[in-house]
Design goal:
The protein is mostly helical. It has three helices and no strands. 72% of the residues lie in helices and 0% in strands.
Amino acid sequence: MALSREGALAFLFRRGAPCTAGPARGVVIVHHTEVCMSLQQRLVTLNERHTALESRIAEEGGRPRPNDTALSQLKREKLRLKEEMERLKTDRAFS
């Protein structure tokens, strides 16, 4: 399973792994506050997308003949975003 940059960094901080490898190795030095801000920014972005999907679902559901396929795809995407936000909040609590 591939981890996002934020997920990988959160994993490193939970494990207490050092993140000060030299730039000669092509590793960027990252501080804990940067990871927290990155996670916070990701949560804000996901929340904005979740809210936009709510609007699109309401719009589609309000039509006289809603497209059931499109409606179910929008709902699945909304659920996926909600699950990702919850996972990130849980990761953030442990980092």
